[in-house]
Design goal:
Four copies of one chain form a homotetramer.
Chain A: E1 6-11, H1 16-29, E2 34-36, E3 39-41, H2 49-52, E4 54-60, E5 63-68, H3 69-72, E6 82-87, H4 93-100, H5 105-115, E7 121-122, H6 147-164, E8 169-174, H7 192-200, H8 208-218, E9 222-225, H9 234-243, E10 247-248, H10 256-269, E11 273-283, H11 286-291, H12 294-305, H13 309-313, E12 326-333, E13 340-350, E14 356-366, H14 367-386, E15 389-391, H15 427-441, H16 452-455, H17 464-470, E16 472-474
Helix pairs in contact in A: 1-4, 1-5, 1-14, 4-5, 6-8, 7-9, 8-9
């Protein structure tokens, strides 16, 4: 029940997300205030579901009572996280934060003393996997003879980081450049054994990110993939299961896709037939620069494109034969935009008597400020699942959850699920599932939202759960 | 279990909603096809949650199975509804449909033979309650000496409609002009008795809509208020309870407010602090014309303004002291817009480290095409609740739900709730509560969305419900 | 001074533009009224600058007097145009109009008798130049042994059309599919002679559109290129000059680019520095389908991308070194959108003290309804220039304008100009230049917009021109 | 020809515009650089037409040559302006700049030493004319017994400011709160004499702003009204003429109206019929706060509402009978928005065959950063007109322009014109008129944009002017 001393190692530590995450935690930890044109600012954890969202735990009289998740479960305190990681650029974190152009200038100044001594470890860099335009940043890379040495080096980095900081555990999270998809081949990526052999043989289709995942798993450390590429090939999944290590992916769900999976719920639940979804994006940070390369964009497009398919498929009245709708994803690199990613979506739908409904969204997403708290949640929730054990029915021993931790789907654009588990993209269902697991852990009932205890006269019930169980309904 | 033969009487039958509802049902009933520039069109019930939305009823293997609500519960078939009503304008429904400028011209032509013999009954018209600009339409009004005679006339209309069409029951729904709020006074509106006395005394602050509500209740007929005004004053509520008649309100939730209550969920659940919501609307139909009058606009503004307050209040991390945010509602009458209401919203929020998130929506809402299926749902669901009886614990007799049917809140901008029942505006919670009541009636478990049966290895469960009950969790 | 009897031959007659142009002229000519949901409609020529825009011709007292262009110059009456053309699809114009899904259904019905006997001539079809997805439409194509026979066939078609309809003249306009750019080669496209040799030799890089241009010129007929491809290669230009025939191009400026060239004026004239222009488009008509092919899209992108460069270059305060700004063009084929093309632009600019200004446009462009009147204007204005002769200074003979008719730039996305003529994309300058030429022809002074005659007290002048000439100013 | 030493006195010096104007000039003058999140910033004069826009002065070969206005005419150098003024709040300019929340924090810090000793003079404050919510700011007000003493005090302030700073001249500009309209009455506001009597008699309908205008005029100082109220009543105009002093107004044209007057040109010139214009605004600065009061909003609404009427009226093809279109103006005070005013416009138009064109704009206007360079231009251009003298025809003496300086209309939402001068709101015409006057002063020809010298073969001309004059055209 006591939170362990936990470390975080970010792949791509010096990127926009990495520096924003690190700076944000330091600002909160040291309670740093700063000025911008709007006056004095105090740090917060807005955008984090563990720190800043609440869930209903019951009623006090007619008043519904809500608590934040971190009051329901004993999450690690973000201010206690120890942060480190790798980057292909050798800039210290203070310089990198300045390069990122995300935080207010006065906050940058105040964080600089804390961050200028933080320097990323040398990174695995297989340049074929990321855009050529990243090459100029790559001045901090491992020069091993083969990929197995890279695995060993990363494992050593993890062990040393753990030891140096006297940590109970570490979580690894990829927030580096989107890689192109690796071409998954039988005999190479299909089993843990083949994959390890491929690493030994320096196979060209083993990506940098897969190296980190393997090293993580072998160090018994949860690995989280915050980018869209297919790091977590079947061989990695098998390796994770064998080693009883959690893996989570893929791709932070922070902006356009997040709202899209909420709006698909909105339309389909309302009985409105979505006909086209056109999603334009442009951004000017290094992520955008990397994605301006076709192969890397493809990874992103795949990650973003199927996000509403299961929602459409759930409604056979609207989609009796097929869920094929017009769905376009466009991402453009527009340097002037900086980190203020713009997401523009147009949703067209058919309504009553074949009328048309059109909804257009212009969404100014501060890319890294939205991603950083999601990184935090992924780490804290994954860490928490390492401490959750269950026993079902007459099971003898306590067990942990399936190693493919699809319950974090709320935070992922393309939730990785195990083969025999339904894929859920609906934002509402994802949030509710997550809340209900934690409520169950805390001994709280799930809320069916019927509020029957207030609607069925004669005898008031204390608890909606009970109400439902006891009631008999005849229609 | 068998659906009764049901009639609908609309107040404001000849308005845009009334004609669209009527034409749409006729098109479906007689399977009328028509042409517009896009080719041949077939009728549908898109936008209706009873007809066109689905809910999960369980899993078949790893596949989730969904059914439409009308397959779960024995709702009245919309094609079997008998439609009638009142209107201050004496246009027959075919002419009125043409005036509405909502349906495709070719569909108007095809529906005309069905609708030209439909003529609204004379309406109660207290002109002080609606905009002066409606006066030119008012050529079909009752001319009774006092308000009690109006009540009696409406009651008679209901009885005759029922008899003429050999109906088991009737539902009354107000889809006429928004009235100004009546000034609720002690001694006048506070009790059923006082209210009836006020009617007898021809009290000026008893509104036309309240007359319809009273007549409905006295005829043992469910009354639904689709406009924002305060028809359902305490005296009406008491009268409904005394007569064991359902009342439902207020104001169809079809466009801007609907998405707003979904997006407030989206933000607040994500731990993002909403700071301002600016909602602009313009429309050119007769609703817009009526609302261009200040007093009527006020009713609408009240109805729209508090719709997210309970959602904000549920998060004390984001709103520790007060839920006061900047929230503006503007409605403008722009004749050229016609029925294609435009709703423009800007949502500003504070995110991590006080960054700003801005979301702008441009929403082209076909006003009446969105409202008509909501009218249908309100009628069908309210009718269904008349047939649901429950017994809780050791209760002896079966009872019906609280007469203030707040469970229809998904369909209402400002859900009317009884004094001791929490108000829920969250679109997600409203939908889930409604689904879960019907699933309970049908003997189906509510879904907690944890999908634990797929995530807890060793022993697969058939049913998420069971899983949850049997599991023991230790954190 | 009398308008000649004029025919129009459209390449791509059966496409959306061709059918809308033809149907629209017929509706106007025969004064056809029709119904849509908004009531009875009467035809108009909105969107045509010759028919529906006005220009100031002087003042009457303090009132400025404006006249439409067609009252200033003796343009051909659009209702008198005789229309014909070619298409790769053999659908008659009535069917094709129905396929286009542009006009109201009731108008389609009323136009059908007029258009069902109109059948396009067989078209030149070099399938390598347009998207593969167009192949299924290509059932009406010439099957000549070589390209010179195609030229001869088209020439014959022109002569026969002229004769059959007893026309004084014909204008040819390409409104067919966008072709890919042909690869301009020395020895092939560089001179008239080489080009004619290439045609004889059946050179693969001579495009279908170039064949039409050559045939036109040889028939002494003005040729207008309404698509972006490089039909008008140097050899065509030389041929036109030799034969004293006008050529006009490229690409109708109807929607996004039109407003972009107005807004660039707006910003740059205001001293505001444009930093990024991101232009998203999606459309669902056959144009969009063809452009979904990469090579064809490239033509469009080139046509759209440089449209503001000369405007930026005119301001060396804002752009002292280079006019390089972020400028992205995206076009997506989204079938559900139909002909209602959506253009979304985001303009970011630097303002005082490096603040940012952001302007976002959502533009619902009815693609063919905007293009058809531009087609009309191109034809009427080009025809008019055939009748304008001038004599400068001590020149002996009257001459006609340069054969590359860049004065029609207002109507063209990428105005074709002769080598030694400045390129003007500014919408304001284009309109004013055009107006001023016609005013000069009509003996009217150009307006300098100073209104000095009203602002310089003591002695009022009749004419701003005179005022300016006579005044002496000392600063 | 040499620029005089010029002072500026702002009414409302401590407001957002006043502090931004002052800070911006100081940053430029002292070449202050500063940091924000995007890196190091250098000051500029973007948004000023005198400093940062260019106009064509001729051609060099085929290249068009452009110069900025301040290279064409000897404007006062903005860095040489001496700034002072009045404010109802006694905050020094450094504090006031901080309160404004407009400039980057680091720039605020760097400007503070320059601005903390700048303190506004006591202001005339007739509280009935501005919103009640401004009262809390009013701690720096004159307490004279009557309005004539106020006039005298302001005159004295002007003289002392001039003397203390050894100035050749001063310009006065109102950038304070929008006042309500004064009720113009015969016998009070109609003549200079009556107005002066009303001031003496302390008439309640003489507004604070009119007091400043009178004092200005009596001190022989140009007065510019940057707000919408009717300061410049007929009596003020007469007084200005008598004293040969320029007056300019009304209301800075910086954002929504500016683009609206450009887009009306765009549509109407294209022959497209505007049908509705719906203009929503919200802002959170003190201007917004003041405008949240109904009477003050009315002034703004009047100023904004008629801005396109003359443009519509110029096209009798589109508007044969009346120019009445749906035109709505809404302004809301939304504090969270701060100075980043949002302007949202929807333009609907009828196009060919009664199709609809819809254009939606979302415009993030930095209110004060857009206004400050307009303030600068108004001052510099008005000052320049004081130095322009002309002589027409056989006039004996040089004269100055009409005292109602309507030529500055480009910078004004509601350009004040003299009774017998046409009102021009078209942004394009306003800019061109202004440019042409200055070009005439500089001995440059106006450009008719025909580029005929490049289009009429045989004999090239050096100058488009000459071309036009010499050519003979026969149509």
């Amino acid at each position: 029940m006591k939170a362990p001393k936990t470390g975080v190692m970010l792949v791509g530590w010096g990127g926009n997300n990495g520096t924003t995450f690190t700076g944000g935690i330091l600002a909160n930890k040291h309670n740093i205030t700063w000025h911008n044109k709007k006056g004095e600012q105090t740090p917060n954890y807005y955008g984090s579901i563990t720190q800043a969202s609440t869930t209903k735990i019951g009623c006090r009289g007619t008043e519904e009572v809500y608590l934040p998740l971190n009051k329901i479960m004993p999450f690690v305190d973000p201010n206690e996280l120890v942060i480190g990681g790798w980057d292909i650029s050798n800039m210290n974190l203070a310089q990198a934060m300045r390069r990122a152009e995300v935080l207010d200038y006065n906050l940058i100044e105040k964080l600089t003393p804390y961050m200028e001594k933080m320097v990323p470890l040398k990174a695995v860099y297989y340049k074929d996997f990321i855009a050529a335009n990243q090459e100029t940043r790559a001045d901090n890379i491992l020069n091993n003879a083969n990929k197995m040495e890279d695995v060993e080096q990363i494992r050593k980095d993890i062990r040393e980081f753990k030891k140096a900081n006297d940590l109970d555990k570490v979580v690894i999270l990829w927030t580096a450049n989107t890689e192109r998809f690796c071409k998954v081949e039988a005999g190479v990526h299909d089993t843990a054994e083949n994959l390890m052999k491929a690493v030994e043989n320096n196979h060209p289709e083993v990506s940098s990110s897969t190296i980190y995942a393997i090293a993580s798993i072998l160090e018994n450390t949860t690995y989280i993939n915050g980018s869209p590429q297919n790091t977590l090939v079947p061989g990695v999944i098998e390796l994770a299961k064998k080693n009883d290590v959690f893996i989570v992916g893929d791709d932070f769900k922070s902006g356009q896709t997040k709202i899209k999976t909420a709006l698909a719920d909105f339309f389909i639940n309302a009985g409105i037939k979505q006909e086209s979804v056109v999603s334009y994006n442009h951004l000017g940070n290094n992520d955008g620069r990397n994605l301006s390369s076709e192969a890397q964009f493809k990874s992103k497009e795949i990650s973003k494109k199927s996000c509403i398919d299961d929602i459409l498929a759930s409604n056979k009245v609207l989609f009796p034969h097929s869920i094929k709708i017009d769905h376009e994803i466009i991402i453009k690199y527009v340097p002037f935009t900086g980190d203020s990613k713009k997401a523009i979506d147009e949703y067209m739908s058919s309504i009553f008597l074949n009328g048309n409904h059109t909804l257009v969204l212009y969404n100014v997403c501060e890319d890294s400020l939205l991603a950083a708290p999601i990184i935090l949640d992924l780490i804290l929730i994954a860490e928490m699942f390492e401490r959750i054990w269950y026993k079902i029915g007459d099971q003898k021993e306590f067990t942990r959850f399936n190693k493919v931790l699809s319950t974090l789907g709320y935070l992922c654009k393309a939730p990785l699920t195990d083969v025999d588990c339904p894929l859920v993209n609906s934002l509402g269902r994802q949030k509710e599932g997550l809340n209900n697991i934690f409520k169950a852990c805390a001994g709280l009932h799930c809320d069916d939202n019927t509020l029957l205890e207030f609607k069925c006269p004669v005898q008031k019930q204390n608890d909606s759960k009970q109400t439902q169980e006891n009631q008999q309904v005849s229609a």
